[in-house]
Amino acid sequence: MENTPSTGKSLEYLTDRARRMAVRYTEKGPYRLNPNRNVWEGVVRGIGRQAQTFGWPYCPCQQRTGDPEEDKKVICPCYRHKEDIAATGQCICGLFVSPDFRPQEETVTAVTPAVGPEGGAWPPITLYGANWCGHSLRCRRFLDRRGIPFTYVEVEDDPEGAQRVRDWSLGYQSTPTIDIDGRILTEPSEEELGRALGVE
User: Domain of 18?
Assistant: First the structure.
């Protein structure tokens, strides 16, 4: 995206710069922007926040190592985006997609009653996510399909919730982050989430 660090710039400015980068990249290459504008606008805002926080437009869906040379690989567009698009039709964030990409439509239907393990009540569950984050959406669907009650916090709109996530994740705004009655799961797979809740 750029070769100089971003310091002292507003989030709006950096988000707009990330947006322009994404548009230019798709104009010059074989990929296009996600057809869901809410997704890619959320991602470019995440990139802008990375630039504001860390000085560089890092991919918001990947962890930095703290090694400046190593972390150059996750400056958007990141080192793995071509491989991911070839494999799944979209990059890890869902910002860039293949020309023939079609988003999957899924109807969420609860398949079990909202009763906890062994017939008891479910513990309080809070899912901190982002509307552009495919992994957040998958975890929400996992809980919805099983009728498991939870509170959803959109970190893009809730500064206090976003700060809690960063406190739990060593400064990273990792999504999804799930608080199960004080037990914190950071970016869990569906299998890990199921094990934590005692469901399949």
Answer: 11-97
Q: What's the one-letter identity of residue 11?
A: L
| Domain count of the fold of the chain | 2
- Span 10-35, pLDDT tens digits: 989 999 999 999 999 999 999 999 99
Name residues whose C-beta falls within 8 Å of residue 39's C-beta, 6 or more positions apart in sequence.
94, 95, 131, 132, 134
Q: pTM for the full model?
A: 0.69
Q: Report if residue 44 sits inside a domain.
A: yes
Q: What is the CATH number of the domain that holds 155?
A: 3.40.30.10
pLDDT per position as a tens digit, 34-71 = 998 888 898 998 899 889 888 999 998 887 888 999 99
